Amino acid sequence: MARKETMTSEERVWAAIRLEKPDRVPIDILAGPAFAQVTGHTVADYYFNMSAAQKWAMIDKVWDYTGGWDMDMASIVAESDPLDHLSSKLTTVMALGLKMKFPGEELPENYTAQAFEQEVMTLKDYDTIAEIGWEKFVYDDYLHRLLDATPKQIEDARQKGAVGFFDTLAKWKAKGVVTLYPTYGCPLHPFFRFSLGRSMVRFMEDLRYHPALVEKALKKVTNEYIEQIIGGCKALNYKLAFVAEERAEAHFFPLPVFERFWWPYTQEIVEAVWSEGIVTWFHLDLNWDKNIPYFKKLPRGSAILALDSITNIFEAKKVLRGHLCLAGDVPPALMCLGKTEDMEAYCKKLIDEVGGDGGYILGTGCEMPTAVKLDNWRAMIQTAKNYEFSKR
Question: In degrees rounded to 5, what are phi and psi of residue 283?
Fold first, then answer.
């Protein structure tokens, strides 16, 4: 028998963010194509061959079976036109700023779309970006390096995506689910954008041999990024902003590089949006163990760190307890290969050690894998819903 809940999803999520103890641990889901595989469809179908109504039917089926969740991070639903793949590709290509390989085309039909990283952004582009900003650079030039499409085709695809975006927000709101800004567009930290666009090796060389070029562009894009977040959140009445970063941590860069090229811009972003009442949701993949103490410098309650199971979330909690909310970090391998009892045991450990005193949101490490077992998805949600606080 399910435990009686005394908070709405919004109340529960914000209690966790404010480092209070909610009625139960809230649950976030970052999923897209995973909905297809667990309901008997292919990932290629999800991208290219399904109507919005069919996609919502998949989501509703998973929602009903698992019991539903409190936050949805990326399930933007739009029409898929078998004759017009560009609309389906544009969101992913824009979000990462990379050429992509897609299931049913360059990849088998049940593969997740894969980034095809190469040097697309040139050294000269730093000056251009510093002068005109990232958004104008993207739409005037950069997107046309990534997609074989005319400006009119890209604009038409953007319009189709916007319709799906606003329709999706309305449907999640009707379910009482919390979403973030932007769930559509370019949510990457400026440092991460440049790393992907230049490619990892070229970007490392830039930091070593052309640091002034990089810094000039970082300053411009950071200011633009702050304006976009604040403007977008105000327009849509949002209080949560999504920022993704997967490369600035000590796994890739020594701390002096992190301290010079990432941390100052990050502090500026967080403090600027926090001054407007907006909390930053950091999507932090890979190993941030050595970087976690820096986040203690941010204002209390100004950010959430969503970790992907490579960073030690239990040690992170010891450092940030009572200061910042954490989210994650159920391993994708456990979601795909584990037994339901293993899933329940790990989720209980997370709730006990990370969430027992508040300041924690349960979710997967990074995105829900397309090969997830639906029963494990349900086990994660039901454990959060039914594991009594009194047992912790």
Answer: -95, 105
**Angle subtended at Cα 240 by Cα 371 and Cα 275, rounded to the nearest 5 degrees:** 150
Helices 340-350 + 374-386 axis angle, to 10: 40
Q: What type of residue sits at position 137?
A: F
Q: What angle do CA 205, 92, 39 make, to 5 degrees?
A: 135
In 3-state terms, what secondary structure has residue 21? Answer: coil
Distance of CA 69 to the CA centre of its chain: 16
Residue with tokens 């809230």: 26
* Closest-CA residue to 214 (of 187, 243, 193): 193
* Two structure tokens written together for 185: 């567009």
pLDDT in tens, 367-384: 999 999 999 999 999 999
pLDDT at position 214 over 70: yes
Question: What does the pLDDT look like over 3-16, one tens digit per residue?
Answer: 789 999 999 999 99
**Tokens 């970090």 label which residue?**
329
Type of residue numbered 172: W
- According to the model, what pLDDT value does residue 392 have? 45
Phi, psi of 27 (to 5 degrees): -125, 130
- Residue 74 exposed, middle or buried by CB count within 10 Å (0-12, 13-18, 19+): buried
pLDDT at 389: 62
Choose among 244, 224, 245, 240: nearest CA to 276: 240
**H or E element that contains 28:** strand 28-29
Radius of gyration of the chain from its Cα atoms, rounded to whole angstroms: 20
Three-state SS for 271? helix
Return the closest-CA partner of residue 95 out of 173, 192, 224, 3: 192
At 315, phi and psi to the nearest 5?
Answer: -70, -35
Residues of 18-51 as b/e, b for ≥16 C-beta within 10 angstroms?
A: ebeebebbbbbbbbbbbbbbbbebbbbbbbbbbe
121 φ, ψ to 5°? Answer: -80, 135
Ranges of each domain in the chain: 9-391
Question: How many other CB atoms sit within 10 Å of the CB of residue 322?
Answer: 11
Tell me which residue of 382, 242, 365 sits closest to 304, measured CA to CA. Answer: 242
What CATH number belongs to 9-391?
A: 3.20.20.210
* Single-letter amino acid code for the residue at 109: E
